[in-house]
Amino acid sequence: MERYVEFEHIDKRFVGVHALQDISFRANGGEVLALLGENGAGKSTLLKIMSGAQYPDSGKTVLNGKEIVFHTTQDAINAGVSIIYQERQLIRDLTVTENVFMDFLPRKRFGIVDFAKAHAETQKIIDEFGIPIRSADLVGALSVAHQQMVEIMKAYRRNSQVIAFDEPTASLADAEIEVLFGVIERLRSEGKVILYVSHRLKELFQITDRIVILKDGKFVRALETKDATESELIRLMVGRDLGDIYNNLDRNAEKGEVVLDVRHLVSKKVRDVSFQLRKGEVLGFSGLVGAGRSEIMRAIFGADPIESGEIFVEGKPVNIKSPRDAINSGIGLCPEDRKEEGLVLERTIRENTTIPILKMISDHGIINTARERGIAKGSIDDYNIKTHSMEKIVIELSGGNQQKVILGRWMSAKLKVLILDEPTKGIDVGAKSEIYQMVCNLAKQGLGIIFISSELPEVLNISDHIVVIAGGKISGILARGEATEEKVLALAMREHTREERN
């Protein structure tokens, strides 16, 4: 039987937002169909409707010729539809096996759970995926990347007929992405219906057959991947070219005195790192996955212990042993995993915005709500956070707007240095351009900005200087005018080349 999912005239409204407007298209079995669009284009809403988490106001979804109406997400799972969301749906205190078989643990006679069978089947899937974990490992002890793979294993184990991937590679290293693509290829060869959501355009050309573009809740166009170009996709998504986004940035031309001076920093994964950051400068950090970029920043921010070395802020030595020490010294960090480490997802925009400055807006331990609301409103206005209310729960925001909440939070904390670790991760091109300009605006205000990204073109075009990290130490520093992808990659590979020679 031919497998397919077809959306017919889907319409969905929320308070103040027309999320989906007359959406119609079909996804066929045996192909990988990309859903592409800016944050807020309607991709996630459409997936939630398909999964039974939300209902359309009008229109219908047809699965293999039959209209489907799911009242719960379990109804969708039972019908063979699985959604792998960017936010992991895992229980950290349970094992890999218990998470993979969460909705159906095999049983022996008298209803006794057959853990031996469950572990054996889980380990078989792990071995197929080729990742270094065991079925009995606690999920909470795994890396973010391996947790994401466990999420994917759940859908794989169910033998779902329709699988949607929502930003599946956001937390994966290159080797793990290759494993994922191998799994997707296998599912495609089995005739499964695959929907794939990603803001990484290069991935779409690697793994997809067709691309459906959504904008502001409307269907824009469907095209064959082989006939598309990256510039065409960007124009259809946001109405302008990526080159224009970089060229039109209003950059800071004035650099001040040294605001951050790091000397001979050593921690568990950092080896004798020294660099300087000036007021108004955007200092980029680049390197291969695992090079130690985030570990350097965690040590500076007090999240990881420093074994030796010195840190100076505006020429004065600071003793940073905790994030609170860093904040008190004028250093802020937007972490790579904003959902796990940067935000309190179940709290409001207002509450998240003022977390670092509660003492500043409190009188005798009581929060001054008028000041708190004023600061939150200022952040929403200044950073163009798309919301109808500061009381909106943060988890309900798009990735780009969540990142803006973090930026708005730190701007109320009177920082001197702001560290941005993968600030555009999982964010669409349109929201990225807003983040880029915000970074430039902050530099013009005199902040020293450290900008870490795995996307090399981004680092090259945003940064004034690029620090290249290899093996936990600095392998070179390049000015924007002299930096090229070839030069940065050569420096990033220096440690690997040295190890191969040895």
What does this entry look like structurally?
The chain is α/β, with parallel strands linked by helices. The chain has three domains: 242 residues, Rossmann fold (3-Layer(aba) Sandwich); 161 residues, P-loop containing nucleotide triphosphate hydrolases (Rossmann fold); 73 residues, no CATH class. Strand 11 and strand 12 form a beta hairpin. The termini are far apart. The C terminus is likely disordered.
What does this entry show, briefly?
The chain is α/β, with parallel strands linked by helices and 502 residues long.
Q: Per CATH, what is the topology of the largest domain?
A: Rossmann fold
- Main pleated sheet: 6 strands, mixed
Q: Based on the structure, what is the oligomeric state of the protein chains?
A: single chain
User: How many individual β-strands?
Assistant: 22
CATH class of the largest domain equals Alpha Beta
Structural class: alpha/beta
Average pLDDT, to the nearest integer?
Answer: 86
With strands numbered from the N-terminus, the spatial order across the biggest sheet is 6-7-8-3-9-10
Rg calc: 24 Å
- How many helices? The count is 19
